[in-house]
Amino acid sequence: MKLKIVFVAHALAEVIFGLGFLLTPNILFGLLGTSTDATGIVLSQIAGAVILSLAIISWFGRDVPAGTLRDAMVWSFVLAHSAAGIVVALAVWAGTFNWLGWPAAALDVFFVLMFVWLRQHD
User: Fold this and answer.
1) Cβ(29)–Cβ(36) under 8 Å?
2) Among 6, 27, 38, 46, fewest CB within 10 Å belongs to which?
3) What is the C-alpha separation between 97 and 33, in angstroms, rounded?
4) What's the sign of the alpha-carbon dihedral 7, 9, 10, 12?
């Protein structure tokens, strides 16, 4: 697999989650078996906007050649998905999210592994 393919898949996944948190946070929280108040909705929408910015960076960065800029992109995605995966896994273990949090955490793990592996082998 090429890093470019991971960047494209990453952009698509981030668009889906970003739009979900920006436009329909109550639906996403409902799927995860939880809810939030007005402050949580606003913070979710802000997170959705940030997630969409990651999609834009990933999409337009798919053809960036190996070097400092691509490394910065990859390591920022690794940090974002490592933190998100841990937070989601802890939310499932605590009972805050239902079992549907596991696929989201697994997607984070997938992107971390793919970015780290392909950064070295692409």
Assistant:
1) yes
2) 38
3) 6
4) positive
